[in-house]
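Input for the complex:
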Amino acid sequence: MVVERQILNQKDIQITIERLCHQLIEHHDSFENTVIIGVQPRGKFLSSRIIVKLKQLLNTANLESGSLDISFYRDDLRRREEPIVPDIMDMNLSLEGKNVVLIDDVMFTGRSIRSAIDALMAFGRPKSVELLILIDRRFSRDLPIQPNYVGRTVDAIDSERVIVEWNEDVGKDRVLMVKKD
Amino acid sequence: MSNLSVDHLLGIKYLKKSDIDLIFKTTDNFKKIINQPIKKVPSLRDITIANLFFENSTRTKLSFELAEKRLSADVINFSSASSSLTKGETLLDTVNNILAMKVDIVVMRHPNPGAAVFLSRNIDAKIVNAGDGTHEHPTQALLDAYSIREKYGEVSGKKIVIVGDILHSRVALSNIYCLQKLGAEVKVCGPSSLMPKHLHELGVTHFSDLKEALNWCDVANVLRIQLERQDVNYFPSLREYAMVYGINKVVLEGLEKEITIMHPGPINRGVELSSDVADSKHSIILDQVENGVAIRMAVLYLLAGRIKN
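Predicted:
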């Protein structure tokens, strides 16, 4: 894997998250009826950061949240060489009548988000579902799904990959564009 | 994590420890799924599964069928009582006819040991052994070990005694393989006439005395006396068996420590277990049943992942 360029550094990520949080507050006011859901495994890092920032901005300790494992809802079970290894599902809440903000790090074909929307419905019928994405790889969609909140839009070709690294995971916050092997 | 090392689930004997760990890890997730408001996932919606039961079964068949339906697979059921087997068709012909209807996975219970292995060598579908005669019953052993892991956090280092009819029990053999692979210590207890000849080759020793066995173990997995497989009398009477090897409250209260009671079902109440034990807090029998569905979902899901388009 060859790193082509850095898309965001630690400072950029911090500013972007702060901006996304302000946009969320614009739409969700006090978050009374809103639930933040991170998509496992990578969306969890971003959603945790967003929850921390929102709590700070809203000056509250109560924000309903969960993390959603989509393994069993995917559409590529028999099309992969590697098995899909499920992650932790942490959804001790009902989504019935809630406004859901679904969070993932990178959006590419839209298939993961399709699975995530399917998985969400197992926890009740939400009033609305919105999508927040840190990096949107536009022009690469297989399905008609678009995010409501975008950190940064990038143009990338098939042989390229966007990698989001988190301090909690690898000790560094940055977003890279790499060339696939 | 790697994939399963096998294409079929024929017996625990053929599994590696890493396979069992992968199955358990996947089961953890399915246990959460079956406790969700909507218990169904679309994973296997393009898979067809045939349940072939050439021998009577209630709970295993129900458990498999529920697991398959919760994974959104298409399911067809077959039982020998209402089949052409009674008209003289061979096993291979029956199964090939069913496969001609484009079936991807076959779950089979059969009275002959080795029937699942035979099928896996001759047909092009994933096979799950749901019990072959007195040989193996791998999903039962997996759910038993999973239930022990759930209760104690791990299986390794635990002491498990299997009580009852070891000679005729496929559950016992699969349990011995499974628990040993996971690092547990396994012993058996029951009348000598119900012990297999080559028990020591499995590294398993035998208690004749029930009390001694229960004082040694952390978990007692109690088996049913399989009268239907016994062509001669192995002990004088059920009543005498119950007096010597039946576990009741008095026996449990006389022990030096608390132990956990398991049973693969169906229970003959008053024979191997008394009602006050089967329904007591020591018993995890109903947890076993719940875990059975999750284990079978995990096994089917992992095997289906190996079917290539």
